[in-house]
Amino acid sequence: MQIAVLGLNHGYTFAKQIKEMKGMTLAAVAGNNAAAIERANELEVPLYQDYKKLIDQCQLDGVIITLPNHLHKEAVKYCADHGLHCLVEKPIADTTDAAREMIDYCKQKQVKLMVGHHRRFSDKINHLKQLLASGIIGELVGVNMVWALAKDRNYYKEAWRIKASGGPLLINGIHDLDNLLHVTNLEIESAYAVARNKIRGFEVEDAVTAILEASDGTVINYFLTDGVPSPWSYEFNVMENPIYHFYEEDCYHFFGTKGSLAFPSFRCFRYSEEDQYGWKHALTEERFPLEAAADPITAELEHFEAVLKGGIAPRVTGEEGLKTLEILEAVNLSVQEKRKVSLHE
């Protein structure tokens, strides 16, 4: 499979993995800054400053798009015009209208559109999904999710990251909320959120608190910030990416009628007997560890390879990416209009 990667920030991770895979060949990359030149040289592949010229000139089987969010729609449509299947990095687009246009366009052109929510390929996330489905904590009542860390100061030197759609909610929060949808199968009905930029003062948010309500009555509380020193975040706790320090902490907690479950420690607290129920009795702690876990990026790429070969549909379709983006858009609208927003307005 001849693959091109458009964008060499997060795309660099994909490109390096493809170089090590037997079923894929990295044909070319696109990027237009000094880092892209350095990385293309390291990868020993042609670099195009204009991704459209790359698409026009290279014989490809598929394209991985990791460009800034607002360029996703244009790039996907250009690839679709050339009959190329796409893996587009999350979020699927910067707006739900753009996402719907992309989905419809790919259907019209009969090309497959896969969204890069790679944590759906995480063994730990799927272990969590299985545990919740097993009923070990009973009926889900509430969820608490935290994503709190301090990004490097140089991170925000790129202009698009300090403008609307470049902040942590869309870049990082989209991961947590997609995890939520994947492991619970909840249908989110409404969102109420507040956001602040008191840490850096940029146009984009640096702290968000959101309350989400699901159709079955489950309530989710989500706090996100990328400007405070903290050990509580998926990246720091799950140990799936070696560039991050590891802290043996939990970033998600699930509360049910029969018990509570923490992630990623998989510590579960319940009462041992029905007649010993209530705050005067001691909780029993159990652990449901996962012995080994594969790299989710590799698993995602292997799945994309299988999609390109034909016979299977993408595990994360455009429609799935749209569902997650709809929640983010509702959260943003709630922030802007200072009100509770229904996803079905």
UniProtKB/TrEMBL annotation:
Any Pfam family matching the protein: GFO_IDH_MocA_C3
Protein name: Predicted dehydrogenase
Stretches assigned to the GFO/IDH/MocA-like oxidoreductase domain: 126-261
Gene3D superfamilies for this protein: Dihydrodipicolinate Reductase, domain 2 (3.30.360.10), NAD(P)-binding Rossmann-like Domain (3.40.50.720)
Gfo/Idh/MocA-like oxidoreductase N-terminal domain boundaries: 2-117
Record-linked InterPro entries: Gfo/Idh/MocA-like_OxRdtase_N, Gfo/Idh/MocA_Oxidoreductases, GFO_IDH_MocA-like_dom, NAD(P)-bd_dom_sf
One MF term in the entry's GO annotations: nucleotide binding
